[in-house]
Amino acid sequence: MTILVFEASGRCIMAIDGEMSDEQLAVYRAAVRIDGYVNPDTVWYDFDRGGMGYRREFNPVVSINTVNNLPPGTKAFVKGEYVEVNDGSLELEVDYPETIPVVLMHVRLLDKTVMVPCEATS
Questions:
Q1: How many CA atoms within 13 Å lie on the side-chain side of 65?
Q2: 3-state secondary structure (DSSP) of residue 60
Q3: For residue range 16-51, what is the model confidence (pLDDT) as tens digits?
Q4: Which of 10, 36, 94, 107 could be stapled to 118 by a disulfide with Cβ–Cβ 3.0 to 4.6 Å?
């Protein structure tokens, strides 16, 4: 038996191979017992539906200086900083032409790295 433990955002924070009492699990926002093994990076917990779901692929649209088609609540890791994206689009400003790796993260989607070609805007 595997126990998957979830934090308040719905992200799975650990998979436990074995047993834990309900009392031990009570400190976590949610826990799901399953037969077999599931990679904790591939699942999330939907508190609205009250169940576990599988994370899907991001489907971003990358163009010059921009990443579009991002769901609200996406976090982007850009040049050592986290940026929250709530309007569906991430725009990058640079001082010289470069290609910037951007790591996209969302609790319902698998993390994805995209390469964004950028041109200087001024």
A1: 11
A2: coil
A3: 888 888 888 888 999 999 998 889 999 999 999 999
A4: 94
